[in-house]
UniProtKB/TrEMBL annotation:
Coiled-coil stretches noted in the UniProt entry, renumbered to this chain: 44-71
Name under which the protein is recorded: Bifunctional chorismate mutase/prephenate dehydratase
SUPFAM superfamilies: ACT-like (SSF55021), Chorismate mutase II (SSF48600), Periplasmic binding protein-like II (SSF53850)
Lineage, broadest ranks: Bacteria, Pseudomonadati, Pseudomonadota, Gammaproteobacteria, Pasteurellales
Domain Chorismate mutase, chain residue ranges per copy: 1-92
Positions bound to substrate: 9, 26, 37, 46, 50, 84, 88
Source organism, top-level taxon: Bacteria
Keywords: Amino-acid biosynthesis, Aromatic amino acid biosynthesis, Coiled coil, Cytoplasm, Isomerase, Lyase, Multifunctional enzyme, Phenylalanine biosynthesis
Subcellular location: Cytoplasm
Keyword Cytoplasm on entry: yes
Site (Essential for prephenate dehydratase activity): 278
Catalytic activity of the protein: chorismate = prephenate; prephenate + H(+) = 3-phenylpyruvate + CO2 + H2O
Gene: pheA
Amino acid sequence: MSLDLIEIRQQITQIDRSLLKLLSERHRLAFDVVRSKELTQKPLRDVEREQQLLQELVQFAENENYQLEAQYITQIFQKIIEDSVLTQQVYLQKKLNAEREQNIHIAFLGKRGSYSHLASRNYATRYQEQLVELSCESFQQVFERVQNGEADYGVLPLENTTSGSINEVYDLLQHTDLFIVGELAYPIKHCVLVSEQEDLSKIDTLYSHPQVIQQCSQFIQTLDRVHIEYCESSSHAMQLVAGLNKPNIAALGNEDGGNLYGLRVLKSGIANQENNITRFIVVAKNAVAVSPQIHTKTLLLMKTTQQAGALVDALTVFKKHNVIMTKLESRPIYGKPWEEMFYLEIEANTNDPDTQQVLAELKEYSTFLKVLGCYPSEIVKPVEIS
């Protein structure tokens, strides 16, 4: 006699709880690993070991005839590895920067429910700290609140996989004394949020932040005669739509934020790219020390002469010292037509003697050079297996 659905679900629940227990045990072992690496000063990540682990797990499942796809196994354990790496990273950073407060004030764009708010919450949770939320009406205000001491940190979007760089944030970095002290990636899942409407064709007005509108442009083009209302943030849009409570309007934002304002999802998966991710930076008044065992990035602000090949000459310094450059962005200098500042992101720790030599040589090819921040990256690139 076959089991009924209730019994099957009870079995699934028991298995899920057993999985949670095992995941918790594996998570705790990450602390034993990092304490061992702390003594030996080995890097936190061992990519070869991670690849070997994934290959062995896939092979083991095949030998045991578990009937699990290799991709399924890989995706699950890539996430488990990411948790282990970040757990170890936070352990080292908290020891190295022991003065860090338990109760931190974070400034972000928008109200509760904005992507910046959700990223801020994610950052605070990772460090197991209490978050005091300071919503801001502009990126400029985020910088100001950190500068004047109202906030310990500011969380700002720097680039998106769909719409590209956030130019306003780059421009503000050009005129600040704050330091970048961290970065994280947050998945962006846009959807159409409404109060009551059930028919998408009756929506004639969409409210959201310009970046969200840009990232959902292909979906918007499929709608007939829709009017766009730009808002300070996606959370402002959600609050506005909830307050107006009209059947012909909708907000574009995230489901979690919509729930805070009593909105429901009318349509999801509306971004131009399915894998839509925003990279956020964290700024503070003081720089942080970064463990040499951690994957570290440094963002530089540089200006060269306008002579032919000046930028190329500067970039050869990285090639000479085998330093990986992950980002090169140029922005105009206000008040100086046709002149540009360059933002260069490299995988390097400024406390490393080799990096200090790189910076010393870079000064020879530049008329201005400033370190905007040396910071641990919370973006763990998953390893692949052949």
